């Protein structure tokens, strides 16, 4: 059996049914827990954890998250396309990092005209 998402071979008995697709365990878990950039519960738990740890600003971020934050800080605002190009990141990776920055209330998306810019919170 082949996983419908990652196309890897799934060992017998380890496939999961997800809306009619056969998925391996990893893809199934990822499908059940998609990144949720706008989840208020995730935001409050992320900020609460940071407060508990006494983290402010970019404390506790990974190097790439800090670099994205600094880039936006320097430019004032940036589009996703710009960040993908500047950091040579796949789009999904940027979304993942942006979700964390957003959870920590450091970076947010704002719409101007028909373009979305990422700016500091
Ligand atoms: Zn898979």
Proportion of beta-strand residues: 15-25%
Bound compounds, each kind once, are: zinc ion
DSSP E strands, number: 5
The number of helical segments is 5
- Quickly count the domains: 2
Q: Mind telling me the CATH superfamily name of the largest domain? A: Winged helix-like DNA-binding domain superfamily/Winged helix DNA-binding domain
CATH topology of the largest domain: Arc Repressor Mutant, subunit A
For the largest beta-sheet, the strand count, sense and barrel status come to: 3 strands, antiparallel
Order of helices and strands: EEHHHEHHEE
**Are there runs of 5+ residues with pLDDT below 50, and where?**
none
The helicity comes to 40-55%
The chain-level mean pLDDT equals 84
The CATH class name of the largest domain reads Mainly Alpha
InterPro entries: WH-like_DNA-bd_sf, WH_DNA-bd_sf
Keywords:
alpha+beta; 5 helices; Arc Repressor Mutant, subunit A; about 120 residues; two-stranded antiparallel sheet; 2 domains; binds zinc ion; about 45% helix
Describe this structure as you would to a colleague:
InterPro entries: WH-like_DNA-bd_sf (IPR036388), WH_DNA-bd_sf (IPR036390). This protein is an alpha+beta fold. The chain has 2 domains: 1-34, no CATH class; 40-120, Winged helix-like DNA-binding domain superfamily/Winged helix DNA-binding domain (Arc Repressor Mutant, subunit A, Orthogonal Bundle), CATH 1.10.10. The protein is built from 5 helices and 5 strands, in the order E-E-H-H-H-E-H-H-E-E. It has a 3-stranded antiparallel β-sheet. The chain has a two-stranded antiparallel ribbon with strand order 1-2. Helix 3 (63-75) packs across helix 5. It starts with 15 loop residues before the first strand and ends with a strand.
